[in-house]
Amino acid sequence: MGQYKFIPLRFTLYSPEEQLHRAKEYYKLCNSRRTVREFSDRPISRELIETIIHTAGTAPSGANKQPWKFVIVNDPVLKQKIRLAAEKEERENYEHRMPQAWLDDLAALGTDWHKEFLEVAPYLIVVFKERYRVENGLQKKNYYAEESVGIACGFLLAAIHNAGLASLTHTPSPMNFLRKILERPANEVPYLLIPVGYPKEGTFVPDLQRKLFEQIASFNVPFKQ
């Protein structure tokens, strides 16, 4: 059973003033992030995408098993296959599977089953969760894979926005077609499909409001009905 070599922690100690400044600046950056459904086909460098993925890969994970795979798609043929398969599932969802309450909530955002952005955005990042890993032909357990991949996706979205790019968290359901099209192994489950690129010039987004601090957090205060 392998053992990690322990090394000194690299940690930067900031003054309280600098801590607060950095926290507020990062909040301002993240608060300006918006989901985009209209993309430009303006190209993005491979190095930029690779650096963003590196950042996502720094996320914590159960027992450091890092149970994620990021499949980066920029081939037009593959993007078209993904779009057609996604639209097939989404049309079925919108026309037959989704309850009316869900459709009403989506209508307020102006979404439907058409997913042109899957072909227009220069890159699609398809995130897969490893249900288990295979080492020397044997199945090995991954711990808290769902939670770990979710955290990595959060890192990924923040890194995309920090780089000056736009993204969309797309979850066509069911998503098994992604594993088939991209020829991924049986231990990988599609988790999230993220188009990445520049927003199309003149793009509009809904005028949404974030919940107030009091609506999302509390300091040692029990919940009261």
Q: Explain this structure to me?
A:
It contains 8 helices and 6 strands. With 225 residues, it is α+β, with helices and mostly antiparallel strands. It has one domain: NADH Oxidase, CATH 3.40.109.10. The strands form 2 sheets. Strands 1-2-6-5 form a 4-stranded antiparallel sheet. A hairpin with a 2-residue loop joins β3 and β4. α2 (46-56) crosses α6.
Task: Note the main attributes of this structure.
4-stranded antiparallel sheet, globular, single chain, 225 residues, 40% helix, alpha+beta, NADH Oxidase
Secondary structure layout plus pairing:
Blueprint: H1 16-31, H2 46-56, E1 68-73, H3 76-97, H4 100-107, H5 117-120, E2 123-130, E3 132-135, E4 138-141, H6 145-162, E5 166-167, H7 176-181, E6 188-197, H8 213-216
Antiparallel strand pairs: 1-2, 2-6, 3-4, 5-6
Helix pairs in contact: 2-6
Return the domain count: 1
Percent strand: 15-25%
CATH topology: NADH Oxidase
Number of separate strands:
6
- The number of helical segments is 8
In short:
40% of the residues lie in helices and 15% in strands.
